[in-house]
Amino acid sequence: MLRGGTVGRRFTILYAAGFLGSGIVLLALTYLMSGVRSTTPAEPSPGASDLTAAREQIRALQSQLADAHSRQEHRWVLASLIALVVMAGLSLVLGRVLAGRVLRPLRLITAATRRISAENLHERLAVTGPADEVKELADTVDGLLERLEASFVAQRRFVGNASHELRTPLATMRASLDVAVAKPDPAAQTLALAGRLRTELDRVDHLLDGFLLLARAEHGAFTDRTLVTLDGLAREALDARAPDITAKGLAVHTEVRPAVRTHGSTALLSRMVQNLVDNAIAHNEESGWIRVTTGGDGGTEARLVVETGGRVLDQGEVDRLGRPFERLGAARTGSEASSGLGLSIVAAIVAAHGGRLVLLARPEGGLRVTVTLPSAAPGRETVTT
C-alpha cells in the first residue's frame, strides 16, 4: 500500500499507523499495570465457633470483588477500543491535513514547473522561505531552468548564424558555376561538371532548409499562428506534386472533408503536409496508390491520414522513421532522393502544435501515417487554405 498512491496518501497512512501503534502500546501498558492487584488481607483468627461463618463471608466478599473487577475491566477495554477507533479516524484526518501542509510547497513547485516551456524559460520558481529542503529543491530547479535557457538561446543563435554563414558560400559557388558556364564555347566536361555540382548544391541547400526548419519546429519558434484548414493544405500539396504522381503512375484517392481546421503556423503545417505527400510518392512502388484523408471527431481533434501501398514493412523500423536520418532498409545509409529529415520534420512540427504522429506498417504492405492536431472551431480569424 505504501509503494503505490500519492506521497500525501503515504504520509497520511504512516502518520495514522504511527499514532495507532503508540496508542496500542500505551493501552497495553496501562492494562498490564492495572492487573497488579492488592493482596487479600490475612484472615482474622476468630474462635472455633465463628471460623466457618467467617470463611463463608470472606469467600462471598472475594467473589463479589472479582465480579466487580471483571465488569470494570470489560468496560475499560470497551471504552479503550471505542477511543482507539475514534482517534484512528481523527489521526487520518489530522494526518491528511498535515501531509497537505507539508506537501503544499511541492505542489506549487510542480504547477509552476509545468507552466514553464521552451517559450518562457526565462521564468523562475523564486520560492521564498527558510533554507530548508523544499527551497533547496526549488533553487536546484531554477538553476536547471537557467542552464536550459542558455542552451536554447545558444541553439537559436546558432540556427540564425548558420542560415547566413552557410548560404553565403553556397551562393558564391552557384555564381562561380554560372560564370564558368557563361563563357564562350565552354567545354563539355565543364558543362557536365557544372550540372553535377548544381545537383549537389541543390541537395545541400535542401538539407540546410531541412535543418533550419527542424530546428525552428523543435524550438517552437513561430508566432504566425492562424486558423488553417488541413483539407486545403492537402489539395495544394497534391496539386503541386501532380507531375511526379503522373510520372510514377500513382493512383490518388482522396476523402477530404471540408472545414477541418486547426490553429498553427501556415508555413510549418504546409511543409508538414508536403513532406507527407513527398514521402508517399518517393517511397511508393510504380503504378501504386496513395490515399489522403482528412477528418476529425467533430470536436477536439483534426486528423490527416496519408496511406500508401507497397511491400510489407517492419514496424520496428517504421517506429524509428520520426528520428533524423532514419530510412527504411538499404536506404538507411544514404539516398540520392531523400535527406532522411522528412518525417523527423513532420514529427517536430506535429509536436510543436500539440499533436501526435502515428506511423503504422500496414499488414497488407505499405505505410499509414496519421497526424492528429487540436481542432479549432471557425471564428473571426483569417482562415488559411
Question: What does this molecule look like?
Answer:
It is a single chain. Strand 6 (356-361) and strand 7 form a beta hairpin. The chain has 10 helices and 8 strands. It is of the alpha/beta class and 385 residues long. The protein folds into 3 domains: 7-115, no CATH class; 166-219, no CATH class; 225-384, Heat Shock Protein 90 (2-Layer Sandwich), CATH 3.30.565.10. The strands form 2 sheets. The chain has a 5-stranded mixed β-sheet. It has a 3-stranded mixed β-sheet with strand order 3-1-8. The radius of gyration is 40 Å and the shape is elongated. The chain has helices spanning 7-34, 51-115, 133-165, 167-182, 188-219, 230-240, 242-247, 266-282, 315-319, 342-352, and strands spanning 225-229, 251-256, 261-265, 289-296, 301-308, 356-361, 367-374, 383-384. The longest helix is centred in the first third of the chain and has 65 residues, at 51-115.
Question: Taking all residues together, what is the mean pLDDT?
Answer: 78
Adjacency order of strands in the biggest sheet = 2-4-5-7-6
Taken from the alpha-carbon principal axes, the silhouette is: elongated
Biggest sheet features: 5 strands, mixed
The number of helices is 10
Outline the low-pLDDT stretches: 36-42, 330-336, 379-385
CATH class call of the largest domain: Alpha Beta
> Mind telling me which CATH architecture of the largest domain this is?
2-Layer Sandwich
Distance between the termini: 55 Å
CATH superfamily of the largest domain: Histidine kinase-like ATPase, C-terminal domain
**SSE topology string:** HHHHHEHHEEHEEHHEEE
Number of β-strand runs:
8
Q: Strand percentage, roughly? A: 5-15%
Instruction: Please indicate the count of domains.
Output: 3
